[in-house]
Amino acid sequence: MDEMDEQVVEQNEQQTGIWKQMADGVSHRTVRNAWTFIRWIFFSCLIGVVVGVVGVGFHHAIAVVTEWRGEYPYILFGLPVIGLFIVWMYRACDMARDGGTNLVLISVRDNAPIRLRTAPLIIIATVLTHLFGGSSGREGAALQLGSSISASVGRLMRLDDKDERVFKMCGMAAGFSALFGTPLAAAVFAMEVVSVGVMYYAAMFPCLLASLVALMTARALGGVPEAFLVYGIPQLTPLALGQVIVLGLLCALVAVLFCKVFGIIQRLYARYLPHPYVRVFVGGCIVVVLTLLLGTRDYNGAGMQVIWRAFTGNAHPAAFLIKMVLTALTLGAGFKGGEIVPAFFVGSTFGCYYGGFLGLSGSFAAGVGMVAVFCGVTNCPLTSILLAYELFGGDGLLLFALGCAVSYMFSGYSGLYSAQKIMYSKLRPEFIARQSGE
């Protein structure tokens, strides 16, 4: 009996030790998770406020210079000269080889350094590009200023390698959200665009929180989220499915053309105008001459007024092609801005005009075109669907999502960002890990 009692006592002690180890492990994980949660609340709110303030200031600056450009149209003739200043400014700040949005993607994926000076440089250069009539967007500046500010704050906070990457994504999401007022799309875009097919889900909470805080900050400072009124949304019928599938396929081809035009013009610049000062001056002159030949200023700046008209059912049949060429000429020459708003312009005008041949209303087709072309050039289908929800509301979301899915599938591996990696095939569950555009 004594031996049996000793064995029972020994087994009880072993079980007690096992339970104690498990409890200690659970307690340790709980404390660690709670600390991580609290830490990301602080960091995300901090970067959301900082980037939100800078972002809304940038948004107001773009609005002001756009109004000035309309009041003083002759300012267009200063575009070539201001291009020389932009190139000089970047070279003087030791940023002559600035990689733009591609640098942001590399910075997140490989934790490459990104300098704080990127933020003021991209803001000044983008504002000047818009003021003097260059054809460009503004989200490239938002992504760059957000990531550069967050990277600098992360270094001050002495974050480790992995946390710093997440912090940069928070900055990207906050910058996108502050400018467009689409927090869900902004948060997912920051996680999705770097390596398509492999999302950094660990960044979901901090990115979403930073995005929401940036949106609230922007609203408090007078920022107005983008939204479009879409009418003529068809019922979910076999006919509507077929119409949207065809339009999505056409938008995929437009997205491929968009990327090809950018690549061709960049190669032509590099071959015939290799010197940056000569390239930006000649490129500025080309944009001025083409603007005068067109007889309209619709294609200068971001062109938001044309996008708004597309949602009322009015678009020129060649507007999408003119915008992509002028934007490629502007950004390829060395001016600054972004490609996403031009992609919105291209998609909405193309959808508005050519969707009518499929029997769709111009307004609804403009919405499908906008998000489908965006999806094709960025390779971000989830972001595109959320963008449709936040810009257009819930009506017709299933059809918008279908258009995005078709565009993603048929746009191949083209993309605006050469640093982007597409991890899985678009046609079958197969790991490919190829660079966008290869």
From TrEMBL:
Q: Out of the domains of life, which is the source?
A: Bacteria
Gene Ontology molecular function terms on file: chloride transmembrane transporter activity
Query: Which topology term describes how it sits in the membrane?
Result: Multi-pass membrane protein
Entry keywords, A to Z: Membrane, Transmembrane, Transmembrane helix
Gene Ontology cellular-component annotations: membrane
Matching entries from Pfam families are given as: Voltage_CLC (PF00654)
Instruction: Establish whether keyword Transit peptide is in the entry.
Output: no
Q: Where are the transmembrane segments?
A: 37-62, 74-93, 166-191, 198-221, 241-265, 277-295, 315-333, 340-358, 364-389, 396-416
What InterPro entries does the annotation carry?
A: Cl-channel_core, ClC, ClC-type_chloride_channel
Q: Which subcellular locations apply to this protein?
A: Membrane
Protein name, please?
Answer: Chloride channel protein
Phylogenetic placement of the source organism? Bacteria, Bacillati, Bacillota, Clostridia, Eubacteriales
